[in-house]
Amino acid sequence: MKPITRIVNSIHFKHAAMPICGALGASMSLCQWMGVAFVGLLMLCAPARGADRQVDTEEMTQAKFQSTYVWQRKPAFTSAYSGANSLSPDLEKRSYTLSATAFLGARLWQGGELYFNPEMIMSQSLSNLTGLGGLSNGENQKGGGPNPIFYTARLFVRHTWGFGGGQDKIESAPNQMSGQIDKHRLVLTVGKIALTDIFDNNSFSHDPRTQFLNWSIMTYGAFDYAANSRGYTDGVALEYYRDDWAFRAGRFEQPIDSNGLTLDSRIMAHHGDQVELEHNHEISGQPGRLRLLAFRNEASMGRFQDALNFWNSHGRAGVPDVGNVRKDQSKTGFGVNLEQYITRDIGLFMRLSRNDGGTETYAFTEIERSFSGGILAKGNAWGRPDDTAGISYAQNGLSSVHQQYLANGGLGFFIGDGKLNYQPEKILEGFYSLGVAKDTSFSLDYQYIVNPAYNQDRGPVSIFGARMHVEF
Q1: What average pLDDT does this structure show over 163-178?
Q2: Closest by alpha carbon to 329, among 307, 353, 360?
Q3: What does the alpha-carbon distance between residue 141 and residue 138 come to, in Å, rounded to a whole number?
Q4: Is residue 42 a contact partner of residue 7, using CB atoms and an 8 Å limit?
Q5: Which residues contact 369 (CB under 8 A, 6 or more apart)?
Q6: pLDDT at 56
Q7: Does residue 86 have a pLDDT over 70?
Q8: What value, to the nearest 5°, has the Cα angle with vertex 445 and ends 442 and 450?
Q9: CATH architecture observed for domain 66-94+127-143+163-301+327-471
Q10: In DSSP terms, which residues pair with 68 in a beta bridge?
């Protein structure tokens, strides 16, 4: 195990935290030391090597930890104009996120498990997290900041009823204890989770801590899933597995306010519902999965056409604003998700998603039509089994009424250039992850974005990134 100081230095913790409370010469700020202490506590509590991969025996308790640092830099780019929610056309030398999470679990009864994930994050976003449909760092949180924030990320109970059909071996992983599990089973999850822990769980593009960083590549771009501003929610999900099939359904709390932190406990009135059907298959002897998702949100949301009508009826004073016309209404959408191994070490993925495009973005990002796909390869082919390389592409779009809203000066939570010369937003992302040591990786990432925030009068934009990830 590396000393804490070496870990901190390896992830450039000092440089990430220097802007936090203002640089204090060569000394570290109180905020930095709080972050160091938290990461150090995780390391000291980590299980001994060899005890973290229990497969043949059933784990009764679990303690796993991760810390991830993401750094990004954006050069200046060409822009005909900028608005209140534009990506800055100026050079931005450093954006970063630093997260640390403990994954603690215990078996409470036969088939019953309890998990608790305390988490810390600190961040500095590009352009205050505005100016893109597909935002560039999946670790970023709405309302994040340079001071360490400590909170409960997950606290949930999972119960599994087994119905035979043979057994599968389950490996130890964060929030998953090793053991044997029936192939035919019913799984109930209740509590605080990230909704995407259960839905849209693509093997090749799901976790920005180790895979692609862009928001519209790590999950469905148009999936405005229920979550608070940190990406977590309270609710219940039920999953049924039988041979090659799985069916999932869940209801989760929406935030009280659009993109807000506090969740609305009135889950029968305001909620996010989703169902997902999954089928496992083989093509030329290689495994793959196909998933179909549908979702429906109920919340107090503003519709773009209502905002335009209100604006017109008031003499076009100011700009259209969905905040003037919010009321209880629904938002629907769907997604298709494919993952397929080509060889043992190379896999591809594809997602297609769309929502109704009539209502404001409530909890995720400002995308209403999205396609993404890519390839991930392990380094066995070039003698680096712990390395991973990936390349992906995403194209995001908006509904016609949303385009009108923005063209007339309207603002969303993330985008709004004051006017709009519309074209779909196009994103190319590639990364290479180098296995530095056991459970430690360093990645270089590059994103090239054409028509940022759907505006061909701005960009293209390059975003350079680096990531250090440590887990135990």
Answers
A1: 93
A2: 360
A3: 8
A4: no
A5: 221, 222, 353, 354, 357, 396, 397, 398, 399
A6: 54
A7: yes
A8: 170
A9: Beta Barrel (2.40)
A10: 99, 469
- CA-CA distances (angstroms) from residue 185 to 166, 241, 322? 10, 5, 44
Q: Tell me the backbone φ, ψ of residue 227, rounded to 5 degrees.
A: -170, 150
Rounded CA-CA distance 432/110 in Å is 42
Model confidence over 103-143: pLDDT tens digits? 999 999 999 999 999 999 999 999 999 999 999 999 998 87
Q: How far apart are the first and last CA of the chain?
A: 10
Q: Which residues contact 325 (CB under 8 A, 6 or more apart)?
A: 302, 303, 306, 307, 309, 310
The C-alpha atoms of residue 151 and residue 100 are separated, in whole angstroms, by 11
The tokens describing 66, both together, are: 């991760």
What percentage of the chain carries pLDDT values higher than 70? 88
Least confident of 79-88, 136-145, 266-275, 409-418: 136-145
Q: Which of 351, 111, 33, 355 is closest to 214 using CA atoms? A: 351
Write out the H or E segment, with its range, that includes residue 224: none
Higher-pLDDT residue of 42, 212? 212
Burial of 366 (0-12, 13-18, 19+ CB in 10 A): buried
pLDDT at 195 over 80: yes
Q: Span 280-293, mean pLDDT?
A: 97
Mean pLDDT of 86-111: 96
Tokens of 231: 């990406």
CB neighbour class for 156 (10 Å; exposed up to 12, middle 13-18, buried from 19): buried
Packing angle, helices 400-407 and 304-313, rounded to 10:
40
Which pLDDT score is estimated for 143?
77
Provide the whole-model pTM: 0.85
**Per-residue b or e along 416-452, where b marks 16 or more CB atoms closer than 10 Å to that residue's CB:** bbbebebebbbbbbbbbbebeeebbbbbebebebbbb
Rounded Cα distance between 299 and 309, Å, is 21
DSSP-based three-state secondary structure for 13: helix
Question: H helices of 26-80, where?
Answer: 30-45
437 SS3 class = strand
Structure tokens at 311: 């604006």
- Those residues whose C-beta lies under 8 Å from the C-beta of residue 452, and which sit 6 or more positions away, are 87, 131, 132, 425, 458, 459, 460, 461
Question: How far is it, in rounded angstroms, from Cα 52 to Cα 420?
Answer: 52
Interatomic CA distance for residues 317 and 311, integer angstroms: 7
CB 163 within 8 A of CB 140: no
Whole-angstrom CA distances from 246 to 28, 369, 458 are 50, 26, 44
Provide, for the chain, the percentages of residues in helix, strand and coil under a 3-state DSSP scheme, each rounded to the nearest 5: 15, 45, 40
Average pLDDT over residues 176-187: 95
Q: How far is CA 304 from CA 317, 323, 405, in A?
A: 16, 10, 6
